[in-house]
Amino acid sequence: MPGENLSRDEARERAALLSVEGYEVSLDLRSAVGGTDAGPRTFRSVTTIRFRSAEPGATTFADLIAPSVTALSLNGRDLDPGAVFDGSRILLEDLAEDNELVVDAQCAYSRTGEGMHRFVDPEDGEVYLYTQYEPADSRRVFANFEQPDLKAPFRFEVRAPEGWVVWSNGVGELADGVWKFAETKPISTYITAFVAGPYHYVTDSYERVFEDGTRLEIPLGAMCRKGLARHFDSEDVFLVTKQGLDFFHDHFDYPYPFGKYDQAFVPEYNLGAMENPGLVTFREEFIFRGRVTQASYERRANVILHEMAHMWFGDLVTMVWWDDLWLKESFADFMGTFSMVEATRFTNGWITFANNRKSWAYRADQLPSTHPITADIRDLEDAKLNFDGITYAKGASVLKQLVAYVGRDAFLEGARRYFKRHAYGNTRLGDLLSVLEETSGRDMATWSRSWLQTAGVNSLTPQVILSAEGRVTELAILQEAAESHPELRPHRVAVGLYRRSPDGAVERYARAEVDVEGPRTVVGELVGTEAPDLVLVNDDDLTYCKIRFDEGSLAALRDGLGDITDPLARALCWSALWNLTRDALMPARDFIDLVLRFAGRETDIGVLQMLHAWANSALTHYAAPGWRGEGGRLLAEGALRELRLTEPGSQHQLTWARFFAAVASDEADLQLLQGLLEGTAKIDGLEVDQELRWAFLEPLAAHGVADEGVIAAELARDDTASGKRHQVRCLAARPSAAVKAQAWASVVESDSLSNALVEATIAGFAQSSHRELTAPYASKYFEVIERVWGERSIQIGMDVVKGLFPSLQDSQGTLDSSDAWLAAHGAAAPALRRLVLEARDDLARALRGQACDGAGAVGD
Questions:
Q1: What is the C-alpha to C-alpha distance for residues 586 and 688, in angstroms, rounded to an integer?
Q2: Number of other residues whose CB lies within 10 A of the CB of residue 36
Q3: DSSP string for residues in 509-535
Q4: Which of 4, 307, 714, 786 is catalytic?
Q5: Is residue 307 among the annotated active site residues?
Q6: pTM for this one?
Q7: Is the dihedral of CA 76, 77, 80, 84 positive or negative?
Q8: Any residues with CB less than 8 A from the CB of 782 and at least 6 apart, and which?
């Protein structure tokens, strides 16, 4: 419906007209159990909104997406739902100065992770509910003014099935069959929340005594489905939570403001997590059913702390509109790693940040849809797509640069003043810049123009001139920018000089920090030093840029990348080499060769996992088609070799086992996987738990070794929600035209699958070894995507448009089809066009990479 996509101009007009005094929301969720799923399953939602109008007699609207409205009244005057409700908006005419709107509606449970999501656990038949709203889906649960700057306190009450527990933002009590919750502080609609059902729930508490003697006690809770309780390591969740609360209290000088702190791990969640104050929700995959590496625990800790940072950056102080989404997401992404490194056992978090998070940012910043960190968000569809690598990872990278620019103390003091000045309010870019100018004395406007208000990523390349005696006579940094985004930014960087020591290690022997300005900057401090083997620009990862190498440094990396002793420097080099591959400046087979030669020596498990992902992507997308067979064989051989050599029972062994399964394709490799599944083969120290069994089964299904019966037998071993997702993916992965047709129809032509099963089906459908089987769907894709986008929810629309783009049909013909669709659909939804344009750009980049790999030459 046209009214669902609220525009920024409409939001501004409504904010100028209205101020909201409070909400009272009553939900009846007893319909969640029993009955059948024929037709939309609904629940009763009764909302009372009290608000003021600056212009008596004016007209506005409230937001509600619901199958039907039973009754409406405005200021005691009954309204005809058929006349004023169009399915997404309620027309409100002739407002008074003080108003009361009462809406009695039938709202629909969701199966797409948007609004009130309803999940039935196949293991025991239990029903679980949770909500997810960002950016604008609370209107699927109760009537409201759905925009972040119309904050208000909320009072919630819920009727639930007998035996259930209900949680919300505030503390709740059950009385006479009704859960009643304490009134919230003034918060935005999108961070209100409910979780309801027979969840497994554990408790703890946090206490803090401040210097003035005041005591703060925060009740802590953590929950998951009953079927996951045996895997739930809540003690580690609480440990990180307490460490984070200590850190933020130490540095923010503003006590946690929202009372209790519950954390719910919920099924079929679209996001990593959501920062609802008092009731943070996470995807339940953060509860590990099998053995995982330390990188998984680090990732969970990072997300816990990211969401906790939001309690201040986002919940206490909220952006006015989604243009300034970075005011919460960039800060939370930065503070998640900042606090994790300083307050928890995960002290190498900046290595993960440099190698993992930044790679997401570099990709996003080279897409045609790249945008400044402070983006131009015209409407809610724009907002939904703006939760991207620019807003999160580039924004966090730029904040890391900002801390180097203004100083740590000035940055944190600015944050403290920002919270106190704007508590429970809404802010724009200038509000933050003003406090940072106060605390640092720096010109923040100039910095902001360069870093926050322009798009694109700069490349920094060293230029070294040596004397005949082997000394540096000049060292300069060359800065370049893409023609489409020509801004040359100021960078505070460290330049490291590395050379091989007598024992064979490659170590840094000289370092200088310098402010890079313009196209060429001389690093005078390093003149006269001995000739380096490797020059590493942006050593220690102080700025956001793509690192390039001079010819001598690149040769040194080819010879001894694994000999670099510093793990952060090594991670930065790997990331730079991957960028060279993506930019068609290094053949994919050269990158794969480096992985085969040096990945086995990588000590950081998160970096190793990224190398595996990059190597697989290099083979799938950037290698010349004629070399893919040989490249796949080399990767499988290398993975198996490392699997057998790695320390038995180690997390590195587990990582190599998963990578081997991902690249295995020939008969011997598949027989080994089958033997490991059946127990007839063994690798010393490798425990094949249930999650690893599914990882081994998928390639067997994809190569026709495991049929539907084998997959069904595996589901019988693991008849759980997680097992069902794995089964659906494996079924769609089978090499059959009929299977692909069925998978396509179940996602494109039907809306019967939940969001999690749509995702699993698409993953199984799009196997890199099935290019011929999926080729017929390239043309079908362009025929159906506009219809799918119009008919399905935005989340499912995004999953289909991104996941089914025919990227494996990597030819000029597919590129031409993409261009033809874009040319013929200029009036299509801008968000849909953006997704197609991004996929088209990835395909064009892949074709350039394949040409480079086929030529076998390194560009410069």
A1: 37
A2: 6
A3: EEEEEEEE-SSEEE-GGGTTSBPPSEE
A4: 307
A5: yes
A6: 0.96
A7: negative
A8: 817, 818, 820, 821
